Amino acid sequence: MWRAEMTKRQLAGTAAILLALSVPASAQDDTQPGKRPTVSRGAPPSSNATVNLINLLVKQGTLSEDQAAALVKQADDEAYVARQATRDATTKAEGAEKAATTATDAVSPPGTKRVTYVPEIVKKQLRDEIRAEVMAKAEKENWASPGKYPEWAQRIRFYGDIRARYEGDHFPAGNGPLENFNAINTGNPFLEDNLNAVNPYAPPSYNTTQDRNRFRFRARLGADIDLFDGFSAGLRIATGDSSSPVSTNQTFGGNGGDFSKYALWLDRAFVKYQPVQDFVASVGRFDNPFWSPTDLVWYKEIGFDGFAIQAKQQVAEGFTPFFAGGAFPVFNTDLNAGLNTSDPSGNIKLPSRDKWLFGAQGGFGATLDPETNLTMAFAYYDFTNVRGKLSSACVVAAASDVCDTDMLRPTFAQKGNTYMRLRNIPLVLPAALPPTGSENFQFYGLASDFRPVVASAQLDFAQFNPIHVILDAEYIWNTAFDRAAVAAVAVRPNNFAGTPDGSPGPYNGGNQGWLARLTVGNKEVKHLWDWNAHVGYKYLESDAMVDAFVDSDFGLGGTNLKGYFIGGNVGLGENVWASVRWMSANNIAGLPYAVDIVQLDLNARF
Asked: Which stretches of sequence are listed as region Disordered (predicted)?
């Protein structure tokens, strides 16, 4: 009796508290004899007492709207789980009851009447089991947890960056015209002078005399996706004036101008397999798999198409060898290559001229002492089918005609490499091929093979951590370069020395290059007032490397350049920083060419 009386008192007290909370203060003050208390109608009543209580607390100012919304969401989720558990428990109980009835009917004599009874303890056990199952499913799929993504979405990590840039390109007086072989090879063949046809126009050339001011931006958005058992995938899209492999810059006012929209390109698309921490196999389009501390050989953001493996293993305290290798298609022949030939049938198919890059690199990272680290690597690259070859005798009557080595011309190039003629066009007099004879519509290919050896090194002093002093160095030597063979087929005046009378002198291209750089400051600029500064010198001869894949900023891109560069970065906030860089480049061989470039950047990443 005493226990029952206490329970009633507790319930009464709780009801009084709820009643007091539910009645506004003004109504409580007016509860005098003869007056009835008023009830707030500010929020519609709910069948859930918890929700009603929350609404009352919001009206009284105890809770904010945001807090109340979160609590209501949580209450709804919990109520949903409870309802689901009850429904499932009832369903299972009914199923068990039907099964029991069926079994009883099978053994009971006809006419037997019975009352089915499921003990309450069994029902409770079933409810608990179903609730546990529902909660486990809710936890896994996150549909009953406010603010959480589904499990599959948690395996996707988005990232990106945006850069706004001012660039000033300044040319001194005295620059010579540099022939634009890329414009010829990606457009119509150039009509060279011969005895039968004289082209009144000069070949396409780069503008090397007019200063330019450009405002540019770059935007990239990517996603890394964790799949299963060591497999992952990645995608990234990026801006760009074109599909160039060495730039994602988009110039304001480009792409037709008049505030036209800009194009997006598929910049990365790959699948990776990493069964252990120190081994990665990649296929698709991915980041450069080879360690390269500078941009002497490879543009720093270049993407590789193909297959690559990377591995490393610590063999002793502070000493970790590493290896990278792969095969990468540079150009794949179109299935319809060879149409529109000068052959009378017009159906000649040309042989495949697929181009490949094979590469391998070995190196090591060593801790010389707790505050000094050394990394060194040696790499060998083999470009196949990139050198031009003179075609078989090819009579060309129109610019649309095709010769059998046309596909050896580069589909993208910057400037600097030495070129040769691809078409072997015999001299045919007008009488034999009226009305104009054989016209010298010409394409151009690289005059040298490329099998460069690259040595790379970085020495990092961290005695003043977080300030580092870093020395980077890289050297390249194209072992396939044959000076005499290249000079014999090179197109003049491409990489030929000048003479006082203006005629081309001897061929003076080269096959080596090196870069040295000193950097002081934070290794990465991520936070407010992080900073670093660098200064260096670059020397890259004409045929040390395929010019399509080297840095696109120094000297406005390409090989056959030398000069100084200096720059710095400073953090303006979390993952926001400003950059400044000045580069002064000059030609090494051929006609005079020089350019000074200033870049001011505002960068942000997420």
From this structure: 26-47, 88-111
DSSP at 387? B
Report yes or no: 570 and 554 within 8 Å, Cβ to Cβ. no
Torsion (CA) 410, 414, 420, 422 in degrees, nearest 10? 30
Q: Output the CA angle 248-189-330, nearest 5 degrees.
A: 45
**CB-count exposure of residue 459 (10 Å: 0-12, 13-18, 19+):** middle
Give DSSP secondary structure letters for 272-289: EEEEETTEEEEEEEEE--
Q: What's the predicted TM-score (pTM) here?
A: 0.75
Angle between helices 49-59 and 65-107 (to 10 degrees): 170
Of 149, 300, 157, the residue nearest 234 (C-alpha): 157
* CA–CA separation, 221 and 241 (whole Å): 17
CATH architecture of 155-605: Beta Barrel (2.40)
How does pLDDT run across 291-318, given as a tens digit for each residue?
Answer: 999 999 999 999 999 999 999 999 999 9
Among candidate residues 250, 233, 231, the one with its CA nearest the CA of residue 242: 250
Residue (of 275, 149, 154, 281) closest to 224 by Cα position? 154
Domain boundaries, the chain: 21-27+42-141, 155-605
